[in-house]
Fold each of these.
Amino acid sequence: MNRPERRNPWVWIPSLYFAEGLPYVVVMTVSVIMYKRLGISNADIALYTSWLYFPWVIKPLWGPIVDLVRTKRLWIILLQLVIGASLASVALTIPVPGFFRATLAVFWLMAFSSATHDIAADGFYMLGLKEHEQAAFVGVRSTFYRIAMVTGQGILVIVAGMIESNTNGNTVLAWSVTFGILAAMFIVFGVYHRFMLPFPAADRPVRSGQERNPVAEFFEVFAAFFRKPRITSILAFLLLYRFAESQLIKLVSPFLLDPRMKGGLGLTTSEVGIAYGTVGIIALTLGGLVGGFVIPRRGLKFWLWPMVIIMHLPDLMFVYLSQVQPSSFMVINAAVAIEQFGYGFGFTAYMLFMIMVSEGDHRTAHYAICTGIMALGMMLPGMFSGALQEWLGYPKFYLWVMLSTVPGFIVAALIKIDREFGRKI
C-alpha cells in the first residue's frame, strides 16, 4: 500500500472536522430533541444529558494515552467506526422497552469515543500539516465543524420531522431511521479516512526518555496549571462566565417543542430544526466571526465588556418568547438568531481568555485543562435546569436565567488581561 507522508489538506481536513463535530452535536443537542419527542420529562432530559458532558470534562486525564499508544491516524479510524456502531445501536434500541436507559448507555460510549476522537484529530492536524498550513486551515476546520452542527442540529432534525409527518407521527420510526443514517455516515467516514489520511512521519507513539518519570511529568503539568497567578479568578471565570447560557441552552429545544398550553411555542420537529438548528447556528457562527474580526483591532481588554454585555443581554429574547408566546415563525426565528448571535460574539472572549491562560511551557495540556473546566461549567448548571424549569414554568425560568447572568458580569470584573493581548501589532 502507498503510504504518503503528505496529502492535499483539502482532501482530509474538511471531512475530519465534520466528523469531529457531528457526534458532539448529536450527544449534546440532538439527543435532547429526540428524548423530548419520545416523551421524556424536561427534568430527566436536562439531568441525564448534562451528565454526557462528563467525558469532555475529564478528557485531559486520558489525553496522554493517545500519545503513548499506537498512532493518531489509527485512533481516528477506529473511533469513527466505534461511533458508527454506537449510532447504529441507538437506532436499534429506540424501539425497545426501556429505551431511555439503553440509549443513554450508548450515548455515554459515544461521548467517550467522541472526546477521544477530538484529542486524536487535533493532534493529527498538527502532525499532518506544516506550521504555516496549520494557520491557513484554522478557518477551514472551524467552518466544517460548524457545518457539522448545522447538519446534526438542523438538517437531521428536519429529516426526522419530515419522517414523523409522513408516517402519521411515528416518532420511534423517525428517530430510528435518522440514527441509522448517521451510523452509515460514520462507517463511510472510517473507510474514507482509512485511505485518504496521510501517514506523517511524526505520527508515532511518544516515549519519554529513561531519565524522566512520565507519571511525575503528568502530575507536574496539572500542578503547574493550578500554580498560575490569580488562579482563583481564572477558575471562577471559566466556570461561571456561561452560568446563564448553560441553563438556557439545555431548555431551548424543549421550550420550542412544548405545546402552548404548557408554556412552550408548539413548534414541530422540523420547525425546531430550522429555527434553532439552522438559523440559530448560522447566527452563532456569524457572531463568532464578528468577534474574531474585531478583537485584533483593539485587543481582548478593550472588547471584554462589550462582549460580556452582548452575550448576556440577548437572553431577554427568551423572556419575551416565554411571556408573549408569539405565533409568527419569523418572529421566533429572529429572536433565536439575536440570542445566538450574542452568544457567539461573547463566547469569542471566553475562547481567547483560555488561550491567554494557557500560555507557557505546557500550552497544549493547559488548554485541554481549560476546555475540561469549560465543559464542567456547562454540565453542572445544566443538570438542575430541567427540574428548575418544571418547578417555575417557562416564563419564570427565563427570568431566573436573566438573574443568572449576574455571575458572568462579576467574574469578568475579577480577571486581569494584558492591554495588548489579542491585539494585532
Amino acid sequence: MGFSEKHRRFRNKLRRFIQQEIVPNIEEWEDKEEIPRELYRKMGQSGFLGIEYPRIYGGAEEDFWMTVVLAEELARCGSGGVAFSILVHTDMSSPWLTRLGTSVQKKQFIPSITSGDTVCALAITEPDVGSDMANLKTTAYRDGNDWIINGTKTFITNGVHGDLYFVAARTRNEGPRHGKLSQFLVYRKTPGVTVVKQLKKTGMWAVDAAEIVLKDVRVPIDNLLGEEGRGFYQLAEGLQRERLVGATLSYSASQKALEDTLSYIQRREAFGRKLSEFQTLRHRIADITTEIEAARRLVYHAVSLFAAGEECTKEVSMAKLFATEIANRVAYETVQLHGGIGYLRDSAVERFSRDYRLWTIAAGTSEMMREIISKHSLT
C-alpha cells in the first residue's frame, strides 16, 4: 500500500507537534535524563499514542504505515532517546495487549496507554541473558489465584519512570526449550518490584534505562498475557515490529544527520572554498546519500510484507541489519565532515552518533540478524 494523502496529513500534524512540543525542550530533557510525563499526555490528546489500536479504547485504528510515519518523524526530533522512549511505549511493548489481551485486559489497560497516563516498558533482558530468550532465568509460579514472580531484569527502557512492565518469565521447568516462557503485566508500583539502578548510557540520555528486581511479586492470574508457555513465540513475533521500528528510526535519523551536514559544508569555508566544492567530500556525500536511500527502500519492502501479514522474518532482519549499520556509517561520516565541531556535545551529529550506536545492539544484534538471514537463506 505505502503512503496516501491521509498519511501526508498525519505527517504534517505530527511534524508541527514535534517542532512545538519536543524540539525546543530537547537540551533540557537530555541534561535531566528524563522526559516529562506531560509530553505523553499531550501526545495522547493529539492521537499519537494509539495509532493502530481500536477506537473503543482511544485508538485510531490506522495501519502500520502510519506507525512508520510516527517513527520517521520522531527520529528527526534531535534526540534518539525521546524517539526511543515513545516508541517503546507505542510499538515495542503495548501492541502485545491488542494482539493477545483478553477483552477485560484491553478495557483495563489500553485506554490509559493511548491517553498517555500509563507509560509502558518491556522487561525481557536479564544480566546474563540477552538474545537467547529461551534461557531466561526469571520465574513465575501459580499460588492460588496469583502468579508469584522472581528475577532480575536489566536494560529496561522506561523502567525507572514508566508504569507498566511487560515481563517475560519462566513458568515451566520441563518440556520443549521454547515452551517454558510466559508474559505478564506488572505495574512498577506492585509490592516486591524494585528499581535498583538507573543505568548510565553512552547515548540515549533523555530516556531512562533501569535494572529491576522482582522479589515474590504477586500478580493476579488475570495478568497473564496470552497463553501460558507460549511466551517465547509471542515475543519472537513481536520482535518483528520492534526491528522494523528500529530500522525506520535509523534511516530517518541518518537522513536528518545528512541534511545537517549538507547545510554545514555549504556554508563552511576552507582554503578559500566552500567545503561542498571539494570533490572528495562531495563523493562521500554521494555514497551516504545512496546508502540511506537503499536502507529506506529495503525497510519499505519489509514493511509492505509485514503490513500485509506475510511471513517476513528474513526481510525484516535484512532491513534491520542494513539500516542500523548504515546509520553507524553515516554517524562516522557526518561527524568527520563536521570536523572538530562534530565532536562537540552541542553538535546534532555528535548526539546522533552516540544515540544510534545502540541500534546495532537493541532488538537483536547485527550478529543475530546475520544468523537469522543465513538460516532462512540456507533452508
Amino acid sequence: MTTLIILLLLFVLLFSGLPVAFALAGLGLAILLVGGFSPLMAPQALWGTIDNFILLAVPLFLLMSNVLLRGGVGRDLFAAVQAWVGHWPGGLAVATILSCGLFAAISGSSVATAATIGTVAIPEMEERGYPRSFVLGLLAAGGTLGILIPPSIPMIVYGFITEESVLKLFLAGIGPGLVLVMLFVIFSMIYARFSTQYRASDPATGEERRSTSIRALPSLALAIVIVWGIYGGIFTPTEAAAVGFIFSLLITGVILRTLSWSKLKEAVVDAMTTTVTILLIVAGAKIFGKAITLYRIPQDISQLITQNFDQAGMFILVVALVLVVMGLFLEALSMMLIMVPVLAPSLEYLGVDPVWFGVFFVIMIECALITPPVGLNLYVIQAVGKARMGEVARGVWPFLVLMLLTVLLCYIFPDIVLYIPYKI
C-alpha cells in the first residue's frame, strides 16, 4: 500500500507540471521526514551525485556536441556522405541516416544530432520529392541514434545508477546501433523505390567526392579517436569526453575556421544549461532513490516481479510495455532515473545481463524521444522544419516499428549487444 501511495504521489506531481528534479527531490525529502529518517540524507545524496567522476563526462560531451553543432560539422558530414551515396535509390535518405550515425558517434546527443543533420537534410530531401512527413519522421528517428551509438549520455547515467562499466555499455551499443542504421537504410530505399514523387540525384563528380571527403575527414577522425581510445583502454569515457572537446575546438576553430567567439559562447551557455538540468534531475532521483530504498520499495517490487515473472522474456515484455506507456508522458532521462533503480535488483534473479538490459532500456527510451505528446525530437524537428506536430508524428511511426523490431532482434540474438563488450 505504501508503494502504491508513493507512486501515485510521484505521478500526480509530475503530471501537475512541477519540474521533474523538484518532484523527485521534494517527494524524496518528504518520505524521509515522514519515516523519521534524518533529512541530512538529502544534501548527502546531492553531494554524492555532483562529486562523481563518471558524471563529469556529461558536461564535456555536451560541450563537444554543441561546439560541433555551432561549427557546422553536420553540414560537412552530410555533404561528404551525400557525394558518395546520394545517387543510390533513396540516396538522400540513406545519406541522412548515415550522417546521423556518424554525428552520433562524435556527439552523444540526440537533440544535437537531429538539429544538426535536420537543418541541412530537410530542404535537400524535400527538393528531391520526398514526402514531407517521411522526411520529418526520418530526421526525428535518425536523431535517436545519438543516445545509442557511443558515446551516449543516457548510458553514462545508467552506468552511474547501476555501477556498471560505462566502457562495456558504450561497446554494447555499437551492434544495435548498426542494426538500427541498417534497418532505417533498407526501409528508406524500399520507400523511395515505390514512391511516385521521389526523384533520383545525379552521381557526384570525382572532384566533389574528393573535396567533401577532405573537409569531413577531421570530424571522422574525431569519431575514430573517441571510439578507438575508449575501446583500446587509452582513456576512460570521461577522459574521452575531454579529449573530444579539445579536438572539437581544434577542428571547428583552427582547421575549418567555422567557430567564432560568439558561437563558442552560445555553445558553452547551452551546454551549461543542459548540464544543470540533467544533474538536477539526477540529484533529485538520487534523493528519491535513497528514500524508497529505506522503505524497501525496490526490494518489494523486485520480490513481486520474481514471484510473478519467473521467465526473463515475460519480464522484458512487461518492462517494454510500461516504458512505451510512460514514454507518452515522461522524457527519456526521467524514465531511466525512476525505473532503473527499481528494476535493477530483479536482473540477477532472472538471469538478465545488466549491460544487455542497459542497451534495451536505452532503445526503449529512444522510442520515447519520438512518441507524442512529449517526444523531445519531435519538437526539435518541428522547429527545424517549421512543421506542424501532426506532420512529424505521422512520419515517425514506421521508424518506431523498426526500433521495436531491433529490440526483438536483440532479445532473440543477444550477441548483437554482448559480442563486442565480452567476446572481442
